[in-house]
Design goal:
Helices cover 54% and strands 10% of the residues. It is mainly α and 143 residues long. The chain starts with 5 loop residues before the first strand and ends with a helix.
């Protein structure tokens, strides 16, 4: 009683615990992801795999390999629903937080560049700022 019998997964042939699904946990997860992609984006498994290979298994924005940053996410236009490319989670979330707004993204780039240009200040100015911060920390610790 209460003991489950092991059966074979219909997809991979591996051992699975008997439950309502005919798949092991790993295969169930894969099939679930495939169904979700098909349902949300109209993207078949072969189309998804083609995109992954065409992008060298890397994010279309940062070029990081998907194996090092987690699985690929399907990027799509929220206005049209059209699939654009595969992105890593960070880049996909970044675009989402900016609402796919090109003006906002360009403004963010300008903002970052304005601070990048400051790094070209002379080493003397940089050392003065570091020294001041260090002195401030030392004073706070003494109090």
């Amino acid at each position: 009683m209460g003991r489950r019998r092991a059966t074979v997964c219909k997809r991979c042939g591996g051992v699975r615990e008997a439950k309502e699904e005919a798949l092991c946990n790993g295969c169930f997860s894969v099939v679930s992801s495939e169904r979700k992609r098909k349902s949300l984006y109209g993207l078949s498994s072969s189309e998804f795999e083609f995109m992954r290979v065409a992008q060298s298994n890397s994010c279309a924005i940062c070029r990081k390999h998907f194996d090092s940053v987690g699985g690929p996410k399907v990027d799509h236009s929220h206005a049209t629903g059209d699939v654009r490319a595969l992105l890593c989670n960070s880049c996909n979330l970044g675009l989402g937080h900016f609402g796919d707004n090109v003006v906002s993204l360009q403004s963010a780039i300008s903002y970052l560049l304005s601070f990048t240009n400051q790094t070209s200040k002379s080493n003397t100015e940089t050392e003065v700022v570091r020294s001041k911060r260090s002195d401030d920390r030392k004073r706070r610790k003494r109090k």
